[in-house]
Write a structure and sequence with these properties.
elongated, 1 helix, minor pseudopilin epsh fold, 8 strands, 34% helix, 151 residues, alpha+beta
Length: 151
């Protein structure tokens, strides 16, 4: 009796999948710092984009726009939408934007796009990597930096 083997058996396929799973499980701790740093950069870019959008909307509509930071809840809010930070990403402190009398921490843009005050939001991941989202006081320019702003 001659066997004609043109493929793989289910057992061989399951062994290969199990072996790949074991390799990925052992490699995950090595890749976790890179994934965390990527997530930090993604959240910082999202926050900067939100601040830029608020500034642009203030200019185009002629109405002031507000971004509220909620460090205690690890999120921020713009235009009625709450945007949570990713798991493992946290605010450092509460931000340098001034607190309003009602306790809210906000970055507001006037109709000409100028912020009511300058400020910095610092985000940190679980490996202590930090990024700074900085709003310039004069023109409202929003940038991301690995270095804290010079005062």
């Amino acid at each position: 009796m001659v066997l004609n083997s043109r493929g793989v058996t289910l057992i061989e396929l399951l062994l290969v999948v199990a072996l790949l799973g074991i390799i990925l499980l052992t490699a995950y701790p090595f890749f976790d710092p890179f994934i965390s740093k990527y997530t930090l950069a993604k959240d910082a870019k999202q926050m900067a984009w939100t601040l830029r959008s608020a500034r642009q909307k203030a200019i185009t509509t002629g109405e002031p726009q507000y971004v509220e930071f909620k460090p205690h809840a690890n999120k921020y809010e713009y235009n009625g939408e709450e945007i949570p930070l990713s798991e493992g990403i946290h605010y450092v402190g509460s931000t340098t934007f001034p607190k309003k009398s009602n306790g809210m921490i906000m970055c507001s843009f006037a109709s000409n796009g100028v912020p009511s005050s300058a400020g910095t939001v610092t985000l940190r991941d679980k490996y202590n990597n930090q990024l700074y989202i900085i709003v310039n006081p004069v023109g409202g320019r929003v940038r991301i930096s690995t270095e804290p702003p010079k005062t």
